Amino acid sequence: MKVKIITAQKKMFEDEASEVILPGEDGEFSVLDDHQACLYSLRSGQIKILFRGTVKQNEKAFTIRVGLAKIANNQLTIMAETF
What we know:
Helix content: under 10%
Distance between the termini: 25 Å
Largest sheet: 8 strands, mixed
Number of strands: 8
Strand content: over 45%
Number of helices: 0
Order of helices and strands: EEEEEEEE
């Protein structure tokens, strides 16, 4: 899925990912390919983006204060306030 993280100031990240773990208001949850379209409120915490490599899975992380995650058409857009 295509993942984009943006703040009011700039685009922080944009790439393809196999899984994204988000800090939802009700706890952590994962977003995978073909996730149902929805809008989630995010709390302070860490966004973990996982990439599948040929040998092992790689990970990238971002810390946010609050934000929103919009999932639609195999695209995840995260609008966040970062630390």
